[in-house]
Task: structure prediction
Amino acid sequence: MKLLHRLWLKINDIGEYDVKYGAWKIYQIMYANNLIKGGNLFTDNDIIKNGRRPYIKCQFIHNGKSTEEMRFSGETDFNFSTQKKSELCRSRYENYKKILERDLAGEGILDIYLEMLNECSQMHHSQDNISIMLQSGNMQGAKGAIGLDRLDVWLLILDMKYRYNINMLQNHCTMENCSEIEKFLNLFDDVYDYASTIYHINSELVDKLIESGKRPLYSATNIITYMSLAKEFWNQKHAFIENQLKYEQ
Result:
């Protein structure tokens, strides 16, 4: 736990949270068997900045298969940001707060779920809420645009891609980069394989997230479910990182 705490402290430097120095240290722990540069795990020297959002150019190895070198960057998993979102005319945090206040007014449980929302907002910038994502083909743009950056909707979209070949992922990429997404996703058997490898969560949680992704967050009931699933997600990822750190000691 002490080593994890030190990494947490290092993550608090300048820049976007999911691509800060400490974030890359977490990715090295999470993807030690996947992200390969020149036959080895990527190092700090492989992080490319060039005045833009930092990324690495690596192969991703999984299921005995490997991509060519592709660009990967950090990504925030669940978005409980206090930053204003134009589509909502307010931040996601404020939007969820207003719905909770509307639906739970006078029920005596409002404070409980407002506190839960505050806890989720505090976790927005935490090492349990960041993962690697393919930058080639702009998968990050697709996740951000489809479902307003909801992880449950993202997994629903991936499930539709794997199960029914309904593809909404390539609306945010150039013609030249469309094939990059296909090559990367072809490494994984299904959405469960993807979620296990990228997020280190189990299939039961994936099923619950997919079901949540089918519902709009326009009611306190759905928001409470969404927050509960976020906490379950963070607990599972945290347990994985902790276990990996034990092996390194």
